[in-house]
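Lecture 7 notes: from sequence to structure.

We start with a single chain of 70 residues. Read the sequence below before looking at the structure.
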Amino acid sequence: APGLFSDVTVLISRMLQSRGFPGVVVYLDVFLLVADLEEACQQGFDLLMELVEFWALRLSRKRWSQLGRT
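Now the structure, written as tokens:
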């Protein structure tokens, strides 16, 4: 099962990149989205949530974090 999950996270990363969001880094089960503008990060996050829902993955809300604006 861990190998399958790893394959799915790589696939999601590639799907994000192919849909115009190149600033994505995946480490184990963590997705880091990077962009110049907050709006671009929000669009990437929204797309990530669509893909997570499509692949029927479950998320732990405890692990979500929101960075403060600088």
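The chain has a mean pLDDT of 83. Keep this in mind for problem set 3.
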